[in-house]
Amino acid sequence: MTSLTPQLLAALTLFAFVSSITPGPNNTMLMASGANFGFRATVPHLCGVAIGFGVMVAAVGLGLGGLFAAFPRLHDILAIVGGLYMIWLAWKIANAKGVAGGQAGGKPQTFWQAAAFQWVNPKAWAMALGAITTYAPADQYNLNVLLVAVVFLSVNAPSVAIWTGFGVALRRFLDRPAVLKTFNIGMAALLLASLIPLAMELAG
């Protein structure tokens, strides 16, 4: 029997939902991708986020988190690399041309790009570490870690799909290049704003 009780499972599910549905780098990029490329073209990106984060939770719980605890500087280096990558992504979003007359002005992220991004996403690290330390009891720990990962995968997938759907719903309002450009710049600004907590942490 696992020590992940029904009460703890309910609390974990709520935590997974709140942390998955609230704004962050993944949701911002998925909404922008949905608006620029449509839902079907964004599905690989969406799946990469959900599955990639589930794998990350399992990996963190099964030992990778201990590596960063032993070598804190590795976490700082990863955070800086992630911040720089997110700045580049913000630039890509701001300059995306979307789909006009059937001609794509760019490409949505692939499955592997989205999955790899989880490892340099500060919010993903906070979510993974918070979930493991709070909701994976020591009794039958490895099994509990895998259960936490499965719960996050199950909750995260529909949550990020909702954000993609938001973007798709906005497409009809973004048919003019000037409006689409303004939207993309706004999404890029939100992505950059998500770096503020990271910058404050590194500065402190």
From TrEMBL:
Tell me what topology the record assigns in the membrane.
Multi-pass membrane protein
* Keywords per UniProt: Cell membrane, Membrane, Transmembrane, Transmembrane helix
Query: What biological-process GO terms show up in the record?
Result: cysteine export across plasma membrane
Which GO molecular function terms does the record list? amino acid transmembrane transporter activity
Q: Which residues cross the membrane?
A: 49-70, 77-94, 145-170, 182-200
* InterPro entries xref list: LeuE-type (IPR001123)
One matching Pfam family, short form? LysE
Can you say where in the cell this protein is located?
A: Cell membrane
- The name under which this protein is listed is LysE family translocator
Species the sequence originates in: Phenylobacterium glaciei
